[in-house]
Each structure stands twice: as C-alpha cells, then as structure tokens.
Amino acid sequence: MSKYIFITGGVVSSLGKGITSASIGRLLKSHGFSVNIVKCDPYINVDAGTMSPYQHGEVFVSDDGAETDLDLGYYERFLDISCSRGNNITAGQIYQSVIEKERKGLYLGQTVQVIPHITDEIKNRFTEISRGFDITIIEIGGTVGDIESLPFLEAARQMKTGKNSSDSLYIHVTLVPYLNSSDELKTKPTQHSVNKLREIGIDPDIIVTRSEKKISDEMKKKIALFCSVVSEAVIEAPDAKSIYLVPDIFKKQGLDEQIMMLLRLRTKKWDFEEWNEFTENIKKQDSFPEIRLGIAGKYTKLKDAYKSLNEAIFHSAIANRIKVKTEYIDTETDDISKVKEMDALIVPGGFGDRGIEGKIEAIRQAREKGVPFLGICLGMQCAAIEFARNVAKLKDAHSDEFKPKCKDPVVSLMPGQKNISNKGATMRLGAYDCQIKKNTLAEKIYKKNTIKERHRHRYEFNNEYRKLLSSIGLVFSGINKKHDLVEIIEYPKHPFFIAVQFHPEFRSRPLSPHPLFYSLLKAAKEKKNEAKL
Ligand code: GLN
Predict the structure, then answer these.
(1) CB 459 less than 6 A from any atom of ligand 1
(2) What string of H, E and C letters represents the secondary structure of 187-251?
(3) Domain edges within the chain
(4) Is the CB of 344 within 6 Å of ligand 1?
C-alpha cells in the first residue's frame, strides 16, 4: 500500500508549495521509490481550462488532455513523469461526481453531506491515484484557514489510520516574515497557522519555512517547540537562485531522511547524479555567453502565464551552455522593430485578438531579417496569416477567430468544432500524433518521423490554402494523418523558421530539454557567433 505525504500551506498563498512538493518528490524518487503526486484545488471550477491566466497563471495540459493547475508542470519537470487527469483534483470535480451519484440514487435514503460523502469521494480519489506507487504526495491548494479547503484537509486527516501509524505524513509550508524596522524574523504567524491545523485535527510532522533571511538554530528550536516537532524537522526553504536547486537544499538539511524515518522507509537505490550534473551547470550559468530572446505576446507582465515556456527555454539554455535574456515584447504597445535586434523570436500561444497585428508584424520582421523564429499554437496561426498576406499577397488573410467573415480564412474552425457551444474541455486537447516529412527542418530537429505533442486550441490551419502556400515555398512538415490537420509549418528559405500548432513547452524536462527549444537557441547562438566574426 502507498504511503501518503500531505503538504499544506500556512499564513499566505504563493509560498511555492508546488516547488516544495515537486522537490520532495524528486528526492524520494532519487532514493529509488516510485512516487505519484497530486494537486488538490479547492475551487469549484471543474478544471482550470476556463480560467484566465490572470487568475491562476498558465493552464497546464496533460497527455490525456486535462487542463490543469500549473503545479502539475512542476511535478512533471521535477519527477520526469507524465501526469494525467487524476493528478489534479478540484472541488468542482468532487461535487459534480457526488451530485451525479445522488441523482442516480446511489445514496438513496441518506442526507448527502460534506462529511462523509464529499470527504469519502476525496479519499477514494486519493486511493485510486496512489495505486501501484510506494509514495503519493498530495499538495492541498490554498491556505489553512480558508473555508474552501476544509473538506480536503478533513479527508487528509482521515487518511491517517491511527495516532502512531506511519502511513501518512503531514508537512506544513509556512511563512516566517522578516520585519525590517526591528530587523527580526517572526515565528508567530507560523505558530498561529499550526494551531489552525491542529483545530482541524492535523498535527504537522515537518515544518518547511519560507523566509527572506536565514533562520538561526535558535529560531528553529523555537518553532520546533511551539509546533511539537524535533528541530531537525524544521526545514528552511530560502529563495533559491533556481528552483531546480531546491531538492539539494532540502537534502543538505536531511529532509529526505526525516521523511523516510517517519514513514519507516529505507532507501532502495540512491541516484542523484544526473540531477546534480544539471544543477552544477546552473551554478556555472553566469559564465555562459548571453543571447537575447524576444517573446512577442500578450501576457507580458504576468510571469506565471508563460511558466512552462520559460522553463523550457531555461532547460535548453543550460543544455546549450548559454544564458538567455528574455525580452517581452508587448505586441499591443511596444515598438515591434525591436525584433530585429533579437537573436531569436518566439511568438507563444494565446487567445483573443489583443495584440494580434503586432504579432503578425513581429513574425514578418523575423522572416525578412533572418531572425531564428519559433511560433507556438497562436504563433503558428499568426505565421500562416503573415505568410498568406505578405508572400501570397492575400491582403485580407486572417483567422476566423478574429475576423469571422474575412475573405481568406487561412486559420479556421474544422467541422467538428463548428457546433460546439460549451466552452469547458471542448478544444483540441492533449497529445496527438504528428507525422514528420522527410528532409525538413522538423526532421532534423526531432530526428524522428512520428512524434506526439500536446495541444490546446480550437482553430486549425485551413487545408484549402495548403496547395497555394506550398507552391510559394511554405513547407507543411508535420501532419496529423488521422484528422488531416497541419501541425508544423516551416520556411526553408530562412535559416530557422518553424511554427507548430501544439505546445512543445509542456514536454520539456530539465534532463531532456525539448528539441525545438534546444535547436532554436542553438540557431540563435550560432547567429550571434557569426555576427561576431
Ligand atoms: N486561439 C487559438 C485557438 O484557439 C490559439 C490557442 C493557443 O494558442 N493555445 O485556436
């Protein structure tokens, strides 16, 4: 049977519980355990798909097409696993399934209540997702004290079968604020938050403290005393230079040993070498040459909106031994001619027509000036529009999404999407096969002829324009054969111009960077070197 580690948060949100959970997962995996990891989101939305990135940051997409919380991205990247629908449990899903059961009469005669019906449903989900794993980490979103997260915390409490049992462990991540005026760190909020947890019946076994300053041993002892844990169980999580250094920071404080002791587990086979190699290179990054990468998009002021994209760029930067200076170009307000100064350009995915013309213009400049370019999803659609307008001279070319009655809809809805009225989970979602054409840039990049990549979009390249655009030099180098959909386009007259209908960033991992980002940055590095000669 799987052991459970529950991770809760105290005092404030945004403490980095996701990174903490993923780092613990990485360490335990390195000890040879099979680990699964789950995010519980207390909101009523069934999934994150209908939420704007301004609410919870990027919507992460799994292979099986679930639209999830961005923490699943950390789980995949740190543990090198592929999450699925079951790895993100929302209150909306739990209520939906309890209400469905009630309507079917499965609770006939009973009053359906939060305890036990909602909590039982949550516990069933925990048990299901843990099947076949040595350890299951369950991160509970929100902050202890929130009304919404109570059923999840109650379910977590009930998972411990006895006072001294070693089947469940509770880790509380909390803030230890620093007061400038008195130059001291304060433990009181942590004490309060642990008290709140205790009121619910959870006694935390380990406290992870987030703080701007180093915590003294004295202070650790104080926290240990108030929270009834040994001082070795008070673990610091300082702001790290890179999130990928966190597993090692935890390791050095013995967090993995504490966990294994409390769960009564023994290392199976310690293997941290590859991870270590990667982090050693991160530490050297300041000595690597720098390239300038333009990202022309809409959510330029919101770091979390392009989380996976930024991580994918970072993995490939390390693999290329370069430092990437990312420069966001707001295509609605910024001067687009900045593109010409860049060593590479990415136009990422997006929804809505804000900044669309600027994106198309940015791509034109990259195409004409030989700036290495990668278009992603909406970025590919914009590349197709740009090519149709400026090379095929179809002046009115556009996407049906932004100009419904345009004369040349080079991007349009396919028949399957035309009659859809519900917005939730109705896009083309998840992993689809893509056949790669021989002797193309795509083949050179992937070194394969069939790939699988994750999608999240409604519109597609309109096949009626394939013949015309290919006759003037656009190459359709990736096709989904089953649905006859264009997945990759490229322009061989340009040194590096490729655009994809899917989101490669979701599949990049620190130890296996995605070939598209790797090759884009390699092209940027080479271009910069050539310019120097
Ligand atoms: N808005 C476009 C579509 O729905 C692109 C979506 C995206 O970039 N993820 O097709």
Answers:
(1) yes
(2) CHHHHHHHHHHHHHCCCCCEEEEEECCCCCHHHHHHHHHHHCCCHHHEEEEECCCCHHHHHHHHH
(3) 3-173+251-276, 284-532
(4) no
